[in-house]
Write a structure and sequence with these properties.
alpha+beta, TATA-Binding Protein, 46% helix, elongated
Length: 91
Amino acid sequence: MNDLPIEDAEATLTLDLGSPESARLILSALNPETSSSPAERAKVRLAVEDSNLVIFISASDITALRAAMNSYLAWVSGCSRVLDDVTGQKS
């Protein structure tokens, strides 16, 4: 078994947020996070495609990739719940 660490990990997450407006609002909320990462081990790029928020993550190792994925998924979840509360809709 190979015990070498995995380097240069990447992931693309595509999240259907129910509407293009919700996707754009959440993109706007998360955009500042892409330029103020506390560590240089992961780089993130965001895009909107129809009602989908697309999160592109490139990391120096699998641990950094997992941490970035968890952070962005938690932030999207929180933003989505706030939008639901404010608009009275389910995104």
